[in-house]
Write a structure and sequence with these properties.
The termini are far apart. The radius of gyration is 21 Å and the shape is elongated. The strands form 3 sheets. Strands 2, 5, 6, 8, 11, 12, 16, 17 and 19 form a 9-stranded antiparallel sheet that branches. The protein has 230 residues and is an all-beta fold. Strand 11 (132-147) and strand 12 (150-151) form a beta hairpin. It has strands at residues 2-6, 29-30, 40-42, 45-46, 58-61, 64-67, 74-78, 86-94, 99-104, 108-112, 132-147, 150-151, 158-163, 166-171, 174-176, 181-193, 196-203, 210-214, 219-228. The chain has one domain (29-143, 183-228): Exo-inulinase, domain 1 (Jelly Rolls), CATH 2.60.120.
């Protein structure tokens, strides 16, 4: 009997780079110029030099992108797409129980007034009615392993064996259906808020860039900046 013990790679990305002061440092490039929506797109509307969308769901006020509540969910996207690995930083300030999001090549990270909505209760550094910082590091070539649809964690041990040509699997010493074991390689966005873990989100290797969402309540964004990684 041949036995292969797999110490699986599930640590998704390296530690995030050091923070910035005022969005100016360490080769981060601003995606928002603080004055208007140049560099962003809103469906078929050209936003070059404009300080608001025609429906006023997004406005630039005092150096801040304001996402206003209105009819339906609306999305603001960067004109440029980012297909290389990158590190995105965004500061956001939610109003009471507001709901918004940040898109990474299409998939959405739910960004909300977490604590007052009774969500993300493990966050200890979240600030109500104040600015919070998102750190999103996107890395490609990440190995992801799931068993029965559940991601295998860094402390888990998956063992694969082959006996008489028949494969078998054990997770942490317990038998599992080998047909339920899946290994994939793709891109992952490691998301943090004020340095605290939010989630690891699978994202495409290519997509429509970075997006901001207007949904429920007033939501504000500033210091939106990006650094493409080697």
């Amino acid at each position: 009997m041949r036995k292969f013990a797999c110490a699986l790679l599930v640590g998704l990305v390296a530690a995030a780079p050091a923070g910035l002061a005022g969005g100016k440092s360490d080769s981060f490039v601003p995606l928002f110029n603080g004055k208007d929506l140049t560099g962003w797109k809103y469906y078929k509307e050209d936003l070059t030099g404009k300080t608001e969308t025609a429906d006023k769901r997004f406005q630039v006020i005092d150096g801040v992108i304001v996402a206003n509540e209105g009819k339906g969910i609306k999305d603001l996207y960067t004109v440029k797409s980012f297909d290389k690995d990158f590190h995105l930083k965004v500061e956001f300030r939610p109003s009471l129980k507001s709901d918004s999001g940040v898109y990474v090549r299409g998939p959405q990270l739910q960004v909300r007034d977490y604590i007052r909505r009774g969500e993300r209760k493990t966050l200890k550094k979240f600030k109500n009615d104040d600015w919070n910082e998102l750190d999103i590091v996107v890395k490609g070539g990440v190995v992801k392993t799931t068993v029965n649809g559940k991601t295998v964690g860094a402390k888990d041990v998956l063992e694969l064996t082959v006996k008489d040509g028949k494969p078998m699997a054990k997770l942490n010493g317990k038998d599992v259906d080998v047909t339920k074991v899946e290994v994939s390689i793709g891109a992952v966005a490691k998301c943090q808020c004020n340095g605290e873990f939010l989630e690891d989100m699978a994202v495409p290797t290519k997509g429509p860039g970075v997006g901001l969402q207007a949904e429920t309540g007033k939501f504000e964004f500033r210091n939106v900046r990006i650094k493409e990684l080697p």
